[in-house]
Amino acid sequence: MNVLMVNKFYFESGEAGGVGRYFFELTKLLEENGHTIVPFAMKHSKNLPSVFEKYFVSEVKTKPSWNLWQDLKTVGRFFWSLEARRKLKKLIKENGPFDVAHIHNIYHQISPSILPVLKKKKIPVVMTVHDYKLISPNYNLYLRGKIYDKICGSKFGRCFFDRCINNSFTESLICSLEMWFHHRVLDIYRKNIDLFIAPSIFVKEKLIAAGYDRNKIKIVPHFCNPSGPIEYRTTSPSKGEDSVGNYLLYFGRVSEEKGIGVLIEAMKQLPELKLKIAGEGPEFRHYGLLITNYQLQNTQLLGHKNIAELQNLIKGAYLIIVPSLSPETFGLSALESMAQGKCVVASDIGALPELIDNNFLFSPGNVFELVELIKKLTNDVNSVIENGEENRKKVEQLYDKGSHYTKILGVYNYFDK
């Protein structure tokens, strides 16, 4: 098949996050099975090399430039990008025909202006729903310490009054108007997307509750390919040995909704344990200062780590902690840890309970529950090892690349029925 793969970022780190990783892993998986993948994205200094870069749209910087004309042009592109339409038409003309277009995140930097182009060219369109931007201006459903889902699918104007975007009236107004224009005036996603791919039952139910047709939503969880032997430790990390499994690990985006503040508060009560935090994000400096102010000698902020470094960190951890405060659409960091046979402790929120056994879940934001669960598992090495083994088997049976390929191909071939 000739597949058009569309995502606003063409790199994996930083703001591209888990979407970037999945985009490239899926591309690799499809190419290994003989399919041709043609990317369409935005130009950026972090981009990986691509022979198709000449078709990519120019960079859109979402932060204010304090140049009024430039900022107005940027906002205009959020609503409707003429450049994206023009360049996509050229790409299709020179590299088509395409059997299917697979859309990932296109909001702001590319805009949904490309969707009618695909429809007119009679290219079937599928979209993986990586966040909640289809149903709310606040794409992670989190605001000032609480879940924010009261405007999902309707009443977008409330976002302005609630300052639901970065606590800003201006940004909230722009995003509210953008949602109103795309969903109320044009209804552009429902009209032009043939199938939506939800990575979890939770996301599918959210879309249905917001008014999307359940018959146009297919559940295809993300995947992870287990590799290499599992390394276990036989004693508790509180014993202090400098060997495999002598620390706790969080990895991912360093931002408030990921619950890192909760984890840092927990470490105040766990002085005998070590915590490593790997990743980057908008709250990196804030959490660094918090660790310093608390004088936590047992907590390290490691910053960005490449894939190989991250794999080694996961391999060396006793427990992986996923303390999210916002409803995760899937939980890719949890899955990657499970693939290495690790025990994962996670918030009971969003799609995480679909991955993690109930005995290893705690109430979101509840420091006491998290501390007690970590203490319990620190003193029960056998349970940690057994859960790691079960997690590895679960990934091998349900979330391996073979089953993912079969499901994705089933979605692509849906249009041949």
TL;DR of this structure?
It contains 16 helices and 14 strands.
Walk me through the structure:
This protein has two domains: 2-130 and 194-223 and 401-416, Glycogen Phosphorylase B (Rossmann fold, 3-Layer(aba) Sandwich), CATH 3.40.50; 237-398, Glycogen Phosphorylase B (Rossmann fold), CATH 3.40.50. A six-stranded parallel beta sheet has the order 2-1-3-4-7-8, with helices on both faces. Strands 11-10-9-12-13-14 form a six-stranded parallel beta sheet, with helices on both faces. Strands 5-6 form a two-stranded antiparallel sheet. It has helices spanning 17-32, 68-79, 82-95, 115-120, 158-162, 169-185, 188-192, 201-209, 260-268, 284-293, 307-315, 332-339, 352-355, 367-378, 381-398, 401-412, and strands at 2-6, 36-40, 100-103, 125-128, 142-143, 146-147, 195-198, 217-219, 248-251, 275-278, 299-303, 319-322, 343-347, 361-362. The mean pLDDT is 91. The chain is globular. α9 (260-268) crosses α14. The protein is of the alpha/beta class.
List keywords for this structure.
13% strand, Rossmann fold, six-stranded parallel β-sheet, 2 domains, 417 residues, 14 strands
Beta strands, count:
14
The CATH homologous superfamily name of the largest domain equals Glycogen Phosphorylase B
What is the CA-CA span between the terminal residues? 16 Å
CATH class of the largest domain: Alpha Beta
Counting helices, strands and paired strands, the structural category is alpha/beta
Summed over residues and divided by their number, the pLDDT gives a mean of 91
Strand order of the largest sheet: 2-1-3-4-7-8
Assigned CATH architecture of the largest domain: 3-Layer(aba) Sandwich
Shape, please?
globular
User: Major β-sheet, in short?
Assistant: 6 strands, parallel
Strand content: 5-15%
Radius of gyration, CA atoms, in whole angstroms: 22 Å
Q: What count of helical segments does DSSP give?
A: 16
Are there runs of 5+ residues with pLDDT below 50, and where?
none
Task: Give, in order, the helices and strands.
Answer: EHEHHEHEEEHHHEHEEHEHEHEHEHEHHH
Proportion of helical residues:
25-40%
